[in-house]
Amino acid sequence: MIIKRTEYIDKIKPFINKPIIKVLIGPRRSGKSTILKQIIDYLIEEGIKEENIIWINFELSDYFEIDDINKLENFISDKTKNLEGEIYLFFDEIQAIPKWEKLINSYFAKGNHDIYITGSNSKLLSGEFATYLSGRYLELNVYPFSFKEYITYYNISNDFKTHFYNYLENGGMPSTFDYEGDNRKVVLMDLYNSIVLKDIVQRNNIKNVDLLDRIMRFVMYNISQTFSANKIYNRLKQDMVNLSVNTIYNYLKYFENACLIYQVKRENLESKKILKHEEKYYLCDLGFRQVMIGHNQRDITRVIENIVYIELLRKGYNINIGKFGDLEIDFVCKKQSNIIYVQVSYLLASDETIEREFALLNKIKDNYPKYIITMDDADMSNNGIKHLNLVDFLLGNSDI
């Protein structure tokens, strides 16, 4: 079953036939190709001739022979030489073509090409390409299926809490949804290995893959917790592994660039300064963690925090961790001039927990909205702080 990813399509529609390049970036197999196809379907519905639409997926064997920009230009020229009107170019996983930026810039300059590209590297728009086209491209980050998309795919209309725990275990990578049980885990593990091999090992010429795996497992064990490369260094040193702190930082950056993890910095809410070191990391999809190291009840709050973080990214927020004296606010979320504070916990199961979680937000005296998100069904909002049920939040039943 294929569901329409309207969240992304609706963001792209206003820019169709406009002089701006549409760029979709996200983890491998997170659904970028499907979104491109859905845009193509929309164009055809709007009366665009199919022959004016050129779609190339550089991961398909049909296009393996196109391995440089000259071959790509010749291919497109052959397809479009007798066409009139606007040409619609769709390039899927374009980072496979060396110096692709120059050709895209050339087509953009011609003025009669509407261009869409995807990539599995968060640095796709860095360097020369970003310099040439500053302000002339729209970047959309694509994430695995949200919980809302998950229940749409399975046509679920009730008992959302039970299905949420299934989502927690299975994750949201669309390419795994046709499988169940152990078969799904095998596909998810193969997908993880493919991302590591193609987007990290090969791209960065990594020799010690075992060491790369150790670092990623450390991150998975410590999601939603502050740590530094020094902490990883000290842990590896205990195992007699000799590796510099700078190399560890590089490896973490490789995982970030492959869209597998996200680094979140800390912000001092009193001085408004970004604090160096001791960042938090979150996974793009918790299914990878489940098949690599498993979840357990002791880290349920950290797992839930990861889900909330990704959902806030989907909603378009820029996110930092808030440091207020000795206290820490899970998320300080900014969108344009708007700010919200979000605290995450599994359950407000005791008076002590309620006091702790609300006290953190009560100490912030500005008038920006403050939220606590938990799995509790009862609404414990007080003193202007809104308490949200996690499942309701993920289904869009809140004002965030």
Automatic annotation (TrEMBL):
It comes from the Archaea. Residues 21-150 form the AAA domain. Residues 198-345 form the DUF4143 domain. Pfam families: AAA_14, DUF4143. One of its GO terms (molecular function) is DNA-binding transcription factor activity. This is ATPase.
